[in-house]
Amino acid sequence: MAEAEQIARGVTPITVDSLTRDLLSLGIQPRDVLLVHTSLSSLGWVNGGPLAVIEALLRAVGPEGTIVMPAQSANLSDPANWGAPPVPASWHQTIRETMPAYDPGTTPTRDMGRVAELFRTWPGALRSDHPSASFAALGPLAGQVVGRHELADPLGEGSPLGVLYRLEAKLLLIGVDFDRCTALHLAERRVWPDRPRIAEGAPLMRDGQRQWVTFDIPKVMDSDAFLPIGASALRSGLATAGALGEGRGILIGMQPIVDHAVEFWTSGR
C-alpha cells in the first residue's frame, strides 16, 4: 500500500507507544521469547516505520526477552532449483561460480519485508549460519536460538525452530496469516520425516576460502496448506487475535501450534 493511502485511511499516526500498548494487550509479556513475522503496511502509517516496530517489540518483551525473525535469503541457493523466477540453464554454472559467499553480517534478506531486513542489522543481533534459511535473534537467548543451524535441516529439529519449540517461545503474526508461519515447517518435519530430499548448494566460506558447498534438504509443502491449521487454532482458542495499529496481530505459543498441526495432519484432517 502506498504511503499516501495509509495516511488517507488513518485516524492517527501509529507510534512506538501505541504499538507497545497493542502488543501488551494482545498478550505479550516481559521475558517472552518471540518469533515474529511482519507486514509493516498492515499497521497503517507508522511514525518511524520499521524502526518503530522493532522498538515496540523490544519494549514489550523487555531487556530479559528475546526477539527472533526469519532472515531468509532464498537466492543463496542452487539456481537449478529457482522457479520464482527461473533462470536459463546455461546460466547455472556461472551463477554458482560467482555468487558472493553467505555472510551473516552483510547478506541481505529476500522477500522478508522491511522490518526483518532492519532487524538483522540491529546492534547486538545474531544471525544463524544457514545461507538461505537463516534466522536473526536479539536478546539474552539469541546465541542459544541461532547458534546451531544444520545445512541439511533448515526448518527442523536442527534449526532455530527446534530450539524455539524447546524454549516454549511464542509466535506473533503481524498483519500476516499462517501461510507465513515458518514454525509449521517444524510440524511438517515431524509428521513426514522421510520426505523426498532435494539437491541444494550455496557459496560458503570454508577455511577462509569461498567454496560452493552441496547438501540435500527435505522438500517442503506449499505454505497455503498451513491456512486451515491456523483457522482451526483460532476457532479452538489456541491462538489469540487482536488489534495491532490499524491491522491485526495473532499470538500463539510455539508448542501449541506445532502440536496442533501434528495432530491435525496425523488425524487426516
UniProtKB/TrEMBL annotation:
| Name of the top EC class for this enzyme | transferase
Q: Where is the signal peptide?
A: none
Task: Identify the InterPro entries for this entry.
Answer: Amioglycoside_AcTrfase (IPR003679), Antibiotic_NAT-like (IPR028345)
Q: Which residues form a coiled coil?
A: none
Give the reaction(s) catalysed. a 2-deoxystreptamine antibiotic + acetyl-CoA = an N(3)-acetyl-2-deoxystreptamine antibiotic + CoA + H(+)
EC numbers on record: 2.3.1.-
| UniProtKB keywords | Acyltransferase, Antibiotic resistance, Transferase
Instruction: Write out the similarity annotation.
Output: Belongs to the antibiotic N-acetyltransferase family.
Q: What is this protein called?
A: Aminoglycoside N(3)-acetyltransferase
What species is this protein from? Bosea vestrisii
